[in-house]
Each structure stands twice: as C-alpha cells, then as structure tokens.
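Re: [help] complex structure
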Amino acid sequence: MAITLSEAAADRIRKFLDNRGSGIGVRLGVKTSGCSGLAYVLEFVDELNEDDVVMEDKGVKIIVDKKSLVYLDGTELDYGKEGLNEGFKFNNPNVKDECGCGESFTV
Amino acid sequence: MALLQIAEPGQSAAPHEHKLAAGIDLGTTNSLVATVRSGVAETLPDEEGRHLLPSVVRYTPEGVVVGEEAKAAAAEDPHNTIASVKRLIGRGVSDLKTLGDRLPYEFVDTDSAVPRIKTVAGPVSAVEVSAEILKVLAARAEKTLGGPLTGVVITVPAYFDDAQRQATKDAARLAGLNVFRLLNEPTAAAVAYGLDRGAEGIHAVYDLGGGTFDISILRLNKGVFEVMATGGDSALGGDDFDRAIAEWIMQQAGIGGDASPQLLRSLMDKAREAKEALAQQDTVEIEVALPGGGQWKGQLDRATMNRLIEPLIRKTISACRRTLRDAGVRPAEIEDVVMVGGSTRTLRVRELVGEFFGTEPLVDIDPDKVVAIGAALQADVLAGNKPEDEMLLLDVIPLSLGIETMGGLVEKIVPRNTTIPVARAQEFTTFKDGQTAMAIHVVQGERELVADNRSLARFELRGIPPMVAGAARIRVTFSVDADGLLHVEAEELSTGVKASVEVKPSYGLTDEEIAGMLQSSIEHAGEDMAARRLTEQKVEAARVVEALRSALATDGDELLDAAERQRVERALHDLQQTADSASDAETIKQAIEQLEKTCEFYVERRMNSNIRKAMAGHKVDEFE
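Output below.
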C-alpha cells in the first residue's frame, strides 16, 4: 500500500507548507459526490484523525484515511501546468472511468 | 483531468463547486489581479508573463483593446485611448472643470450628470472604461483558475467617497463580476503583511507611485482597521525623481532646455533606468546620444542621486508629519510601516521613511503587488475557503453620516469610523403644529453646521397625520452596506408611511477636499460647537415664540386683559429680536428665561383654565 509524490508535487507541497507556517503534511482522500461517484480531497493537515495512515515520500508527510486508501493505493500525485492554469493531478491506477472534467471518478 | 489546489482542513470543495475568488487592484496607471492557491496569494501573469496590466483602454472601430497595446497607441490615437480613468470615476460633469486641463479627451455634451468621452465607438463613461479593464483581469483569473469566479474584492483609495465607490461597483457589475466588497487600498496592503492577525496597534501605509503619494494611518482595533487619517500629494511620485535625474544629466551633458521632446523622453527613460539600477548597485554608467551627433558618457553614483531626489522625499515626510498630526499620533507610536508603490524600491526612500518612523519599513512583498495580494486574501476569506474561526476583516466609514435638523444643524446618525455593514436609527419629531411633511436632508462630514458639510441627498416624507408639534414620531434609519453605500429610510411610526433614498450622489469630492473636510473639523471644533449652541438656542427661541403665539391665538383674549396681553406681546417681541441679532447662545438663553418669567402668570392661568375645562361636568370624587 503506497502513495507517492512526483518531484514537482513534493517541491510545491514543501513550499506551500512552509508559506503556511503550520501543518503536519498533506491529506489525500476521496469522498462520495460528484457526477461520477467519487471526488478527490486535497487538504493541509493540522491534526491527525484516528483512522489516518501516515506515509512519507521525498520528505513530505502524506496522510490518508483507511477508507480512502483503498481507492488511492498506487496513486502518484503530480503537479503541472495547462496554459495559465496550474495545480495538482492524481494519477490513480484504480480509476475506471472519470467525468469529462476529471474532478470525479468511479473505480 | 482538472488541476487541484490544496484546501484548508475540511474545506475541500465538491467537484465543480470550487469557490474561486480574486482580488483586483484597479489602479490609476496599472491594474493587477491576484488569487490564493494552496494557501499562497500571488498576482497572476498573462500569457506573456506580465503581471501589470496598464490601465489604458483604446476604442477602435473593430473593438476594444486594453493594456500594453492600448498604451502603445496612446500617442498616435489620443482621443480614443483612455488612460488614468480612475481620476474620472464617480465624478460629475462639474468636477471636470477642476480636472479638465489635464485631460486630452473630448467630452460629449449631455444632460446627464455623468460625463461621457467621445470615441470612435461612441460615447463612453468612466464606468464603462473601468469595466473593460476589469473584464480583462477577470478573464485572466478565470483562465488561470480553470473556472468562473464566484466573486472578487476590488480595492479603492481610502479617500474615495460614496459616488466613487458606487461607480467602481457599477463597473464591476457591468463587467459581469460579483463584488464581495470594496476594500481600502491601505487596508489591503496591511492585510497582505498579515497585520490584521497581529496585536492591536497603529500602522502607517506609505504609498509612493509614479505620480501620486498617499499616506494612511490605520488603527487595528478588535480585528477592524479604522482609517485614522489620510494625506499625501496627488502630484508627487517617482516620475519626479526621474525628472530630477534627467535634469542633472542635461546639466552634465550640456543639453539646453530647447531639447526636442524625443530627446527629453529618452532622457527620462535613461533617468529611470539609472534610478532602478542604483537600487542594486552603487554607481551606474549613463550614455546619451547628443542632438548634434556624438555621445555623452557619464557616471552617476548613489550618493549624487540621493542628493538630487532627497528634497522630493522630504516633501513626502512632511506630508507624513501632517497626517500623523491629524491622527493625533506621534511617529514613535507607529508599529509598522507598509511600503506600497514601485517608487518605494528606491533605497533612500526606505532609509528616510525608516528614520522618520523609527522602525524598519516592511518591504518583503513586491510593492507593486502588495495591494492586490491583500485583496486576494480577503476575497479568499469572503468566498468561504477559510475555516469559520478566521475572523472576517471589517472596514469603516470614512466620514460621518447624518441629517439636517432645525436651524441648519447636523445630527450625526452614523459616526465616522463605525464598522460596516451597519444600521442605525434615530427618532425625530415635528416642529410645528399640524405639520404633515418632513424634508430629510442627508449630509456627510464632521462639522456641526450643514453648510460646512457635504450634501448627499434630499427627500421628503409626506402623509404625516396632523398632530401638535413634537407628537409625531419619525424614525430615520441609516443603513450602510459592506461597500460603504448608504440607504436612508424615514418612517412615521403611527401610520407606517415611509419614504427612502438610495444614496448615489452624482458629484465626487477630490482627495484634497476629503482631507480638508477632516482637518477643518478638527481646526474648527471650538467655533463649531459655539455655532451649534447658538443655533440650538435660536431654534429653541423660535419654538417658544411659536408655542406662545399659538397659545395667544387660542385663549389670549379670554385669559388676559389688554395691559397683560401687551406685556406678553412685548416680551415676545423682545425675545424675537434678541434671537435674531444675538451672536452668542447665552444671551438668547437668558432672553428665553426672561420671557418665561414674564409669562409665568399666563402659563399658570392657562393650566388652571385647562384643568377647569377638563374637570367640568365631573364630580370631585371621580378624580380621587
């Protein structure tokens, strides 16, 4: 069971955490909603919950709750640009189908 | 797939429901847009990597061009290329006369109070021109964020009045934007440095742009920034530094005052380059192509430049000193000084400002971007991307709002520096028996007399049922929304008749006038109070005269013999004369007391007579 970060994503997260001045790491998760069933969660973490699993990649702590981990195992978080827009991308091998925009998906 | 940002804990948005927000610094010369992504507030560049958008709009038969391209065309097509439109926004036709000489545009003659500029695309107003700038910035933000904006925060100068704020909001609406709120520029700069999360204290915002200088003194009090005083010089900026350096080059190179405009333009550019280079290094080489052929080469060191520009910087320091005096604050009480505007990159400016305030000025955030960044942080909070315990920053109204009462006095209903949004009500009554209408005159300012303040609006409440003077109850409610816009409503409480006005004044005040209004209220505090007391006594005298007249008309003949009546009428006449001619409140007060004494017997008789009438037909035991 593992989740990894691309070099670019790790750089960005370190920068954002540093700028924020607090926070343990970054939370990756899924929640049920959206047009295709599940949607990604990407948040800063100040406190751990009981069912959280903490991993580390490239010096960044990745926090995932046990339920989300089932859907995210093997995911690599990447950071990229598309024109003027830039942001994080989930490269998730579990996804079977996603909605046109890619914000929600089914497994 | 969509690109995601890191949200605050628990604030992840549902798909397609990202609360995208932006802060816009709508400037006189340049404008910027900024947003918060993954907790970082940044200004957004266009496709070419340029953050600053020149606030220039060019109208052509083919369409509208905004920014660098429009600016480049300004020289060849001056009538259709509109720059510095911020100086016009919210101003009426009559204000143009004071600005007129500096504006190269042709204005359309219309009956409307809003001036319109003639262009090839038809007449345009300042609101429409500003909307074009906002549209370009909003489109850049939406492209960058990958979705529509839920709302924006737009910054305005602290001295902008209601008309200018309303016009700015109208421009945003015209651009299809939802304005969360307007934010004062100095407040935005302070927010960018996180001063709103710090301890309570007094801060200064020193804003030196290309052509204008503003100094604002802010006090942070219970999470609210109040503007204590603003000041500055609307014709002093970094361009004046360039001019001083250019003159030095001309002197050194032996160029006379008859140099061509092209040469002068290029000298100004050389001067600016030299100034910018000297922010990093100690000396700079300057080369100028001379008009008769040949070249001049010279060297400018930082010490020499400092000597050239120091008198100009001293002028800004004098303005700081005056503004501090207005605020009633000593330089040592200032905790932080926020530097805004490109000209604060000049090291000597930082040194002298630091010396004056006795503190190291804050310069970490790019001074061109700091206002937009503060606006973006505020927009992020207002969009709901922060947990609820993050306090919402509030703003305050810059000048008191009130209504005119009898005798031309101002009754302040919402005092200056009240945090907004706010609603305040006060009850008023009628002055004359049987009065059925009341004129409500809404004024803005700090002085005691209406004549010394600014008139915002007038309206009438009609349909008050006839009653004796002082019996009607009219509630006047002032509500100011989060953008500082005012709604006034008057309601007669027994019948519920209402009248209201939305204040959208057509004429603006200049910066100097606002500063002047605040200052004069301090300077004239003593005489204003004296004038107020005098007027109050005059109104009181008029009320007594009115009451006595109406009493005489009712039962004067019945209760007084001819000699008594004459005595009362003489006393009445005396009071009227004293009230008309007296120049101090005390004399009138004594005259009123005198009249009351003279008429005591009459008042007593009236009371007895009224009681008799009331008791007539009743038995004594009914009253026990």
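The two ends of chain A are 17 Å apart (CA to CA).
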